[in-house]
Amino acid sequence: MARTTHRPAAAAVWMLGSIAGFSALAVSGCEIGATLDTFEIMLYRSLIGVAVVGAAAVATGRQAEIRARNMRLHLLRNTLHFAGQNLWLYALPLIPLAQLFALEFSSPVMVALAAPFVLHERLTPTRLLSAALGFAGVLIVARPGAAGGAAGGLSAGIVAALLCAVAFAATALVTKRLTERASVLAILFWLALIQSALGLASAGWDGAIALPDRTNLPWVVVLGLSGLVAHLGLTKALSLAPATVVTPLDFLRLPLIALVGMAFYNEPLDPLVFVGGAVIFAANWMNIRART
Q1: DSSP secondary structure string, 108-154?
Q2: pLDDT tens sequence across 231-280
């Protein structure tokens, strides 16, 4: 087996692209949300994904990798991911961007807790401790007992963000199984195609699907491309450096998106969101260190 090459500097560059992609994804979602509903946004984003991934497969001569195999797993994965993405887009205009991103970071903690039951991995004391620490971080960010408002209280946006993290955790568990049976290219292609169908069915259930206009069409394109860039950058970074290097870099998304929210949407910098986010990060870090 070939030895993995560790290139932290190159991984850092890819992570900068990933962080920029996730930030652009959030901004474009905010800009589009007033004119398109979440199902329509997912429809157009997924159609762009089909075109880009399909073109990449043809350009690299890898069409043969895209086969109709493991379709039950693909359907399960992409239904979970579709639900998570819609919840993320629903929460986007309802709570500050930093709060949404902080709660999203709890997803790996949920994966660590559920993996022993789904992937038959061992449930260790470290995993239990990291899960408890992650839950404490979520409570600090969400503050369910606080008065309602942008920064506190169990609002619809907070609930959607938490359910989004659960859906993303379940998606990660199914993806783990899929990676043992299908290539990344095949996974991305079926992700885009299945979610295009789900988006079409969900957006068109009432017989009316809004089309992008001149104002939001550029943002729709940014949304579709930024998601691909974000996940490509993260995947490449993980292939070039250990998770112990990549995860702290990924956490830089939180302060960056807080600055974006402050600059473009007049969102206040909430210290408790950063405190809770740091606790969630510590829980993720503990779990990663236990694996290495």
Answers
A1: HHHHHHHHHHHT-----HHHHHHHHHHHHHHHHHH-TTSPSSSSSS-
A2: 888 878 877 887 667 777 888 888 899 999 999 999 888 888 889 988 98
Q: Token pair 């693909």 is at which residue?
A: 74
* Domains of the chain, residue spans: 8-291
* CB-based contact 164:88 (threshold 8 Å): yes
Would you list the DSSP string of 182-249?
Answer: S-HHHHHHHHHHHHHHHHHHHHTTTS--PPP-TTTHHHHHHHHHHHHHHHHHHHHHHHHS-HHHHHHH
> Per residue in 54-103, pLDDT tens?
999 999 999 888 888 889 999 999 999 999 999 999 999 998 999 999 88
- Structure confidence by residue, pLDDT tens digits, 129-153: 888 888 888 888 877 655 544 455 6
Position 119, amino acid: L
